[in-house]
């Protein structure tokens, strides 16, 4: 069964990548074959997010979920995207590059980075093939929800309302159920490879977003650092939503920043798809998306950047994608996603902020990555690109305050970093991931000394 299951997962994830790349091609993001190679990771995540978003809406209205429905969605979405691209006059990618070679240092750094990350991913692949279902949240409700969708072809009301975390959105269980269909059965060992594919897509997407903006000698060490950070390293293959929601948020934020700096409407559309997926992956995804889009709106006003109308449309689309699931669980008398009172005392405000700072600078979780990122942020604000530093600093600050606000406002949450009772570590993970992958962007602007004007 393992060989057949692996081939099924390869086909499923190839379908996600083809769907996403078709959408990017229709948006005129792939003029050259080198762009296809560079943006394969972004396309893969766009495919995952769009598939999960569409099927969340379909399950809410009662459409059956099955193997043929999965195939029809992937094939139909790809055909529709290609047809739209042809109607819009898109042409196939031409050529492979722009004729400019990479400096020797960048070539060596690129080769070393790919080789090192390749070794890490190969080791993780072998681990995923034999990894058991051990994490409490995974076997308590994430995977059971995926099994329920697989066996009952939809949102079984009894299970989805009685299992822990009933307000958690269903995108990850949808991906689990799709993986079970692809494998031909509920193989809860081999299906960990689905999370390996998500990890591979995340690394490729971040590299693709930053490849043309920063030199390889800055980019690849930051990617290696992310994979070996204690908190990330121990959870990369855990069948939960924590890593995926962080990745969708971070890649969406990078695309949004690139759109503000360089234009390119495809980046805004892709970011909106990723943010929509984030809102349907975990509850905090809604806060992440609102923070990124809000900071982008303020930045577009301050920088007099065009396209504010399109940005507002993107925000409305993300909100529209998030609403049906909220209506579904509220229609089943499930609450608890918002605080029911005004919060706590002033002492609780201080304690919540102190906890957030303690978690952010916990070397047992993140090593020295936050310190390096803060130094890079300050340096870019003084000597580098102040617009980039302002955007990232504001976004990181809002998410930081958002995590502290959750601790403060839900008075039943104790002041502790124990993840089973307080989500502050999960909020901080998004901050650290964005800060680490943005550090090359900040340091490069300091190195070149460009764009220092406010």
Question: Outline of this structure?
Answer:
The chain is mainly alpha-helical and 454 residues long. The protein has 20 helices and no strands.
Can you walk through the features of this model?
This protein is 73% helix and 0% strand. The protein is mostly helical and 454 residues long. The chain folds into two domains: 2-90 and 113-336, no CATH class; 339-454, no CATH class. The longest helix is centred in the first third of the chain and has 26 residues, at 104-129. 48% of the residues are buried. The model has no long low-confidence stretch (mean pLDDT 90).
Set out the fold topology.
Elements: H1 2-26, H2 33-38, H3 40-60, H4 67-87, H5 104-129, H6 136-152, H7 157-162, H8 171-183, H9 193-210, H10 216-228, H11 230-233, H12 242-262, H13 265-279, H14 284-302, H15 308-331, H16 346-360, H17 363-366, H18 369-383, H19 386-409, H20 424-448
Helix pairs in contact: 1-3, 1-4, 1-8, 3-8, 3-9, 3-13, 3-15, 5-9, 5-10, 6-8, 9-12, 10-20, 12-13, 12-14, 12-20, 13-14, 13-15, 14-15, 14-19, 16-19, 16-20, 18-19, 18-20, 19-20
């Amino acid at each position: 069964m393992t060989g057949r299951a692996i081939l099924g997962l390869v086909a499923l994830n190839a379908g996600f990548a083809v769907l996403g790349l078709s959408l990017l091609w229709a948006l005129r993001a792939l003029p050259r074959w080198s762009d296809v190679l560079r943006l394969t990771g972004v396309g893969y995540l766009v495919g995952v997010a769009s598939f999960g978003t569409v099927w969340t809406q379909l399950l809410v209205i009662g459409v059956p979920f099955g193997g043929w429905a999965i195939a029809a969605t992937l094939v139909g979405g790809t055909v529709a995207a290609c047809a739209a691209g042809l109607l819009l006059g898109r042409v196939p990618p031409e050529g492979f590059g722009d004729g400019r070679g990479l400096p020797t240092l960048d070539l060596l750094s690129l080769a070393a980075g790919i080789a090192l990350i390749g070794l890490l991913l190969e080791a993780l692949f072998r681990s995923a093939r034999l990894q058991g279902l051990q994490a409490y949240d995974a076997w308590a409700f994430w995977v059971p929800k995926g099994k329920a969708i697989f066996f009952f072809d939809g949102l079984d009301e009894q299970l989805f309302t009685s299992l822990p975390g009933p307000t958690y959105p269903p995108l990850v269980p949808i991906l689990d159920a799709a993986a079970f269909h692809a494998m031909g059965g509920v193989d809860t060992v081999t299906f960990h490879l689905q999370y390996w594919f998500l990890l591979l897509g995340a690394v490729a997407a971040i590299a693709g977003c930053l490849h043309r903006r920063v030199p390889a000698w800055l980019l690849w060490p930051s990617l290696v650092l992310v994979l070996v950070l204690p908190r990330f390293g121990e959870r990369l293959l855990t069948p939960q939503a924590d890593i995926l929601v962080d990745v969708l948020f971070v890649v969406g934020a990078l695309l949004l920043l690139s759109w503000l700096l360089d234009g390119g409407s495809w980046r805004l559309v892709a970011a909106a798809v990723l943010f929509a997926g984030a809102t349907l992956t975990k509850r905090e995804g809604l806060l992440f998306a609102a923070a990124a889009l809000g900071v982008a709106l303020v930045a577009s006003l301050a920088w007099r950047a065009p396209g504010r109308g399109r940005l507002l449309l993107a925000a409305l689309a993300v909100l529209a994608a998030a609403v049906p699931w909220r209506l579904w669980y509220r229609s089943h008398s499930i609450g608890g996603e918002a605080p029911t009172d005004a919060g706590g005392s002033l002492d609780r405000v201080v304690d919540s902020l102190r906890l957030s700072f303690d978690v952010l600078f916990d070397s047992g979780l993140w090593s020295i990555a936050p310190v390096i990122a803060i130094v890079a942020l300050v340096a870019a604000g003084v000597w580098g690109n102040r617009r980039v530093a302002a955007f990232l600093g504001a976004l990181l600050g809002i998410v930081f305050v958002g995590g502290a606000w959750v601790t403060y406002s839900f008075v039943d949450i104790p002041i502790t970093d124990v993840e089973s009772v307080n989500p502050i570590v999960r909020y901080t993970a998004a901050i650290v991931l964005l800060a680490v992958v943005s550090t090359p962007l900040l340091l490069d602007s300091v190195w070149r000394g460009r764009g220092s004007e406010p």
